[in-house]
Amino acid sequence: MTMPVETPLMQARDLKVHFPIKRGVLKRTVGHVRAVDGISLDIRAGETLSVVGESGCGKTTLGQALVRVLEPTQGSILYAGKGKAPADIAHLTETELRPYRSDIRMIFQDPFASLNPRRRVIDIVGESLRNFGVTDEREVETRVGEILRKVGLRPEYMARYPYAFSGGERQRIGIARALAVHPRLVVADECVSALDVSIQAQTLNLMQDLQEEFDLTYVFISHDLSVVEYISDRVAVMYAGRIVELSESEELFARPRHPYTAALLAAVPRPDPRGARERRRLRLTGEVADPANRPTGCAFHPRCPFATDRCRAEDPQLRAVDGRTVACHYAESLDLKGVNADAA
Amino acid sequence: MHSQTNSQPQSQPLLSIRGLKTHFALREGLIRAVDGVDLDAHAGKTLCIVGESGSGKSMIARSILQIVPPPGRVSDGQMIFARDGRDPVDLAGLDPAGKPIRAVRGRDIAMIFQEPMNSLSPVHTVGDQLMEKILLHHRMSRHEAEERAAHALGRVGIPNPRQRLSTYPFELSGGMRQRVMIAMALACQPALLIADEPTTALDVTTQANILDLMAELQAETRMGMIFITHDLGVVAEIAHEVAVVYLGRVVERGSADAVFYNPQHPYTLALLASIPKLGARRERGQRLHSIKGMVPHPLNRPKGCPFNTRCPEARPGLCDATDPRTLEFETGHFVSCHMRDPAIVTRREEATV
């Protein structure tokens, strides 16, 4: 039986990841860091969904919960596996998760820290193959060679150690490792942030090619909005553990509906000196909301230039506005500036 | 506060670097981290040095203050530093461990680094560290130094500066730490501030605030700034002058407008083309331009033009054989490329950005 196209690949519902804060000799729990605090999200097959926000907003924790590196404190993650009925993987044990491990993979930020320096490329990339049932060493070698070629590395290099590669090449090894077992969903956490611009462009192009070739779905976690605009179909903006705006990428950049989204867009430096001089600036002051000590009402109100008494008292719920979801009391009435293609 | 001497014309640079070379003699060979660099930094202006990792941009900054890690050393060139009302000094000629350069460091020329947590002591309060620096360079009482430290923190937009003096760096957020670093750097009213990727580790929102702050402080004090970054967006926000470096050489320099709107060097063109631009809608299947290959290993430096191995315009037998001249393409806009040299190429196609 084939799944209808509309069924999302993954459906997260009211996902919460809370970390206890322990104090004193007895390590009593005195509070919780609510890193992810009630997120519901559909990930559609074949799309690139970006998650953006400042550091501390919970985007990395969300990514780790989706790949089940972390077990969520609460909520469900419905995943529609290959030819299987959707199952909730949010609270499965490690053994129960095994069949999903080859389906949902991760690419990490730091290509220097995420590769074991004492293992050869064939072992780094081939480990997942061996883990998922490829026992014949010759087959491991062939398949590692294939995937290396796909990411633009020479198969001859598989006997080398990570130190022999540059940052961009290492990130390709990280991508090869994630893709070796033919996953469907790849969560990429700041995977081009540590790369130089010229290498970043190569890597982004490669990721797009691979998406097309292998029919991949990406969750792209990033703080770099220019990259996000370039690569995403949809964008989720996070603040203090929650989604404040979720929209088709083009609409979000053209006309943000949440003041936080608008502020993020305004802060992106653009390679246009004349525009920089003329642009009116919407500057965010103050610090990111503390996820252990969430402000009352809308978590963004202490930094929001449009905040009213209502925002200080009443927590805005995510609701549909103009074909997208926004958590702001004034989403309809605010006239927020997006990025103007003509000005750039 | 700032007295402008009339005898000094505006065009006199605060720091004028000519033919700077910083080399590392390793057992494996000689690394030319900085290989013949010319730069000018002016009072009240910001010079951005932009390049990829390994381009030598940080080494240029370290060379100015003579804090190149051994076995590297400034081996050639001159760096004339002319602070208002004082005799010009050639920083390149000073002993890295001598008294004269130590009087310049921190006082006349201050530096801030990328990761504030690595530059601040974790076991001393912010106030102690600020006061230490002030007392090192100025004769005053502890009380006066404390006054000045609190003032410095207030000036960089830290709320409750007097109370903040007794906090430790770990109690501050990344943005606040970078503000403390800037406060420390500015406490002695330097004529030149060198900032090495000061906003790279920060969120875009915090970065925007720090860039605004630096521009404000510059307008207030007329200090010169050398700002090192890999981010062309940041360059566009604050630069008056831009120098693009590749493998220890300045391949192009000029005003921000010249470099962004009339770039000449193929490397500058490629850099500008490889960044995704906000607001430029992606069409399905559209790709970013990427520069082929990667920055060569410093021990494996190509012959001739350093960029020839990756350059789409490179002409065999010329670019991989001889060093290009540096030409003044238009007033104040310098380019080092054979293919822009009228003696070699008479006409070229209009490059598209």
Automatic annotation (TrEMBL), chain A:
Tagged with keyword Nucleotide-binding: yes
Show the GO cellular component annotation of the record: plasma membrane
- Tell me the membrane topology, using the record's own terms: Peripheral membrane protein
Per the database record, which ranges form the ABC transporter domain? 21-265
Q: Cite the Pfam families for this sequence.
A: ABC_tran, oligo_HPY
Chief localisation class: membrane
- Assigned keywords, A-Z: ATP-binding, Nucleotide-binding, Transport
**GO BP, sorted A to Z:** peptide transport; transmembrane transport
From the UniProt record, which GO molecular function terms apply? ATP binding; ATP hydrolysis activity
ATP-binding as UniProt keyword = yes
Task: Please indicate which superkingdom the organism of origin belongs to.
Answer: Bacteria
Q: Which PROSITE patterns match?
A: ABC_TRANSPORTER_1 (PS00211), ABC_TRANSPORTER_2 (PS50893)
Any idea where this protein resides? Cell inner membrane
Give the protein family. Belongs to the ABC transporter superfamily.
| Record NCBIfam families | oligo_HPY, PRK11308.1
Q: What is the name attached to this protein's record?
A: Peptide ABC transporter ATP-binding protein
Organism (species): Devosia geojensis
UniProtKB/TrEMBL annotation, chain B:
**GO BP, sorted A to Z:** peptide transport; transmembrane transport
Q: Which UniProt keywords apply?
A: ATP-binding, Cell inner membrane, Cell membrane, Membrane, Nucleotide-binding, Translocase, Transport
Task: Quote a single Gene Ontology cellular component term.
Answer: plasma membrane
Which is one GO molecular function term here? ATP binding
Any keyword Transport?
yes
As for subcellular location, the record says: Cell inner membrane
Point out the coiled-coil segments of this chain.
Answer: none
Pfam families xrefs: ABC_tran, oligo_HPY
Membrane-related topology note:
Peripheral membrane protein
The ABC transporter domain covers 17-272
Matching InterPro entries, A to Z? AAA+_ATPase (IPR003593), ABC_Ni/Peptide_Import (IPR050388), ABC_transporter-like_ATP-bd (IPR003439), ABC_transporter-like_CS (IPR017871), Oligopep_ABC_C (IPR013563), P-loop_NTPase (IPR027417)
**Has keyword rRNA processing?**
no
**Family as reported in the entry's similarity comment:** Belongs to the ABC transporter superfamily.
Spell out the protein name for this chain: Peptide ABC transporter ATPase
What is the native source organism of this protein? Devosia geojensis
